[in-house]
Amino acid sequence: MKLFFFFVSTLIATLALTSSFNTERTVLTSPPALVCPALKAPLCGDFNNDGYLDIAYYGKCGNGANDCWRVHINKKDGTFHNAGNWGGDMWFKDSYNESKPVVGDFNKDGYADIAYYGKCGSGSDCWRVHINNKIGGFHNAGNWGGDMWFRGIKPVHIPLAGDFNNDGYTDIAYYGSCGSGKECWRVHINNKNGSFSNAGDWGADMWFKNSEFESTPIVGDFNKDGFSDIAYYGKCGNGADCWRVHINNKIGGFHNAGNWGADMWFQGSESVNTPMAADFNNDGFSDIAYYGKCGNGTECWRVHINNKIGGFHNAGNWGADMWFEGSQPKNLPMAE
Ligand SMILES: [Ca+2]
Ligand SMILES: [Ca+2]
Ligand SMILES: [Ca+2]
Ligand SMILES: [Ca+2]
């Protein structure tokens, strides 16, 4: 009898294994040494739709042999659950920043999903979107279309998720090339049926400070109109450093950048200092925070509260007590 059960369970396991080999795509990943750490950067989202933010990242499950999405669900008591295995079926395009996963609600069901620019079918470039299955995992990736034209691999060109047309479905934007190759913001609007539309040219008027992490564009609603805007630390006027905010014009483009002030003091150009946008004082206007310097030069969290009239207040010192493992991008701070 025991032998019979052993035989049956072995058969089932074999069938399961065979079917998974037959139905799942071959997952190609770069050798560990070539994998951009940005792929491993933690992501923040509400993956179980309970109103509490959870954390996800692409890592290892089981005995370490399998790549997987690890999701740490918020326990609502100030801690996270140990990571659950939310599935594999990953096929990153390469190790470039353009493959950086982003979180959004791409099917507007309240559950956070994950998207990244990778490979589909026979190896063509595509947006891969892993829809949340609502029971503790992600569906295998769907092909949400191509038509990508990244400008380069620098941090300023990473994909950004936001609702740029305010319809509740998360869209994707990045700084790339349009037309004959001129620089532009490319926005792929979610077409609500499982794919992105071809990119629209949402304008240029960009002036990045440089290609360091501090210039990484971030998405927020800086004027509280429901339409996602874009901000980054760049140059204004005669070349002075400033926060440049491109407000969404609500008709398929961004306004030219406004100067939202300076008073910045980044600790350095390490990715741990990457700015992030979130509403830290819960007034509906996105604010900006990053880990920098305060007072006489001690490390601190600097938070620039939105002044609601087209600028940021000077930074407040929101405390220190940080202990990063290192300055690698895997420690990228994040916000929702
Ligand atoms: Ca969803
Ligand atoms: Ca949208
Ligand atoms: Ca807005
Ligand atoms: Ca705010």
Précis, in short:
7% of the residues lie in helices and 30% in strands. By secondary structure, the protein is mostly beta strands.
Structure notes:
With 336 residues, the protein is mainly β. The chain contains one helix and 20 strands. The strands form five sheets. Strands 1-2-3-4 form a four-stranded antiparallel β-sheet, with no helix packed on it. The longest helix is centred in the first third of the chain and has 22 residues, at 2-23. The model is unreliable at 1-35 (pLDDT under 50). The structure holds calcium ion (4 copies). One calcium ion binds next to loops.
Could you give the topology of this structure?
Blueprint: H1 2-23, E1 43-45, E2 54-61, E3 66-72, E4 84-85, E5 102-104, E6 113-120, E7 124-130, E8 142-143, E9 160-162, E10 171-178, E11 182-188, E12 200-201, E13 218-220, E14 229-236, E15 240-246, E16 258-259, E17 276-278, E18 287-294, E19 298-304, E20 316-317
Antiparallel strand pairs: 1-2, 2-3, 3-4, 5-6, 6-7, 7-8, 9-10, 10-11, 11-12, 13-14, 14-15, 15-16, 17-18, 18-19, 19-20
This protein binds calcium ion (CA) (4 copies).
One calcium ion binds near residues 163, 169, 189 and 190.
